[in-house]
Amino acid sequence: MRFVAVRNLRLCTKDCLCLYVCRTGATDTENSVIDVTKCVGCGLCASACPSKAISLVPLEYPPQQKKQDEVVNNSFKMLENKAREEVLFRTLALQSNGPEKQLFLSLAKSSRLQAEDLARESRYMLPQSQNTHSLLEDIVKEEDEEAKIIAEKLLKHLVNNN
């Protein structure tokens, strides 16, 4: 199985130690996205990254594993609660000014990230799932040009195992 390095831009602190250890130049890009066509999957950049923003991921994912219905149902209930929390915090942010507005926006973002994790655990947002492909196809229809380009690239590279 072949692996490549990917960078989580949310975690990246721009210390750029990855630039000094990457022997192929895959990490030396203007948009901070690691060039998977150059990456050999050695993991040196991930080891050097002080913020742990770089991980190795497989180029091909195995088929989804079946989860027990009870686990999926409980994860999905938690996911629904996190989605409701996000809506509540965004509503409160719209009604607020000053530092509390930023707090509510942060809480909304936190709820969104937790919901995304729960969605993956509930087998709804794995890279190889139909749900992910449907989401990416919807993003391609949006007006945000940058999001469209990224979604189109992902659709080309992610195999739909459903």
Overview of the structural elements:
With 162 residues, the chain is mainly α. Helix content is 51%, strand content 6%. The protein has a two-stranded antiparallel sheet with strand order 1-2. The longest helix has 26 residues, at 69-94.
CA(first)-CA(last) distance: 20 Å
How many beta-strand elements? Answer: 2
| Estimated share of beta-strand residues | 5-15%
Shape: globular
N-to-C series of helices and strands: EHHEHHHH
Mean pLDDT across the residues is 86
Given as residue ranges, the uncertain stretches (5+ residues, pLDDT < 50) are none
Strand order of the largest sheet: 1-2
The helix content is 40-55%
Q: Tally the helices.
A: 6
Which secondary-structure class do the elements indicate? mainly alpha
Question: Radius of gyration over alpha carbons?
Answer: 18 Å
Strand count, sense and barrel status of the largest sheet are:
2 strands, antiparallel
